[in-house]
Amino acid sequence: MKRDSRLSSVLHALLHMAAHDAPMTSDVLARCMGTNPVVVRRTMAGLREAGLVKSEKGHNGGWSIACDLEAVTLRDIHAALGEPAVFAIGHRNEAPECLVEQAVNAALDDTFREVEALLLERFSRLTLAQLAEDFARRLAAHRQQMRNKPDAV
């Protein structure tokens, strides 16, 4: 089943950018994310249109955050990505003649709507700043762990 990983990828890139003091090129972001620079540029273009990032051309150019991390939620980013489908599962037949399948579709539709509304509401409460803080805590713990690790001989 094909999954849409754009939200996860974009959040990954945004957190790298937030932790970096200078613009990051598409090549650098692509290496961080394990993807192609063309994919980065295509994805970032939508975020630029939403005012979340900006790009600078030339020497020392690249992508940088253009928004307040405290004010931007995952819901905002999901919207900037064109509101991709939350679920990869769906109906066997969108317009069935079979009454059984109609009942199944109705039940699934209701459930999908409820779960999607709950997920998007949670996205509305989670900011980029909260993700950045979690990353900073994890990085500090990792660095402390590495300092406490005895040198391998």
UniProtKB/TrEMBL annotation:
Origin: domain of life: Bacteria
GO cellular component terms listed in the entry, alphabetical order: cytosol
Keyword vocabulary terms for this entry: DNA-binding
InterPro entries xref list: Tscrpt_reg_Rrf2, WH-like_DNA-bd_sf, WH_DNA-bd_sf
Protein name, entry field: DNA-binding IscR family transcriptional regulator
Keyword DNA-binding: yes
Organism of origin: Chelatococcus caeni
TM stretches of this protein: none
Pfam families: Rrf2
Entry coiled-coil feature ranges: none
Gene Ontology molecular function terms on file: DNA binding; DNA-binding transcription factor activity
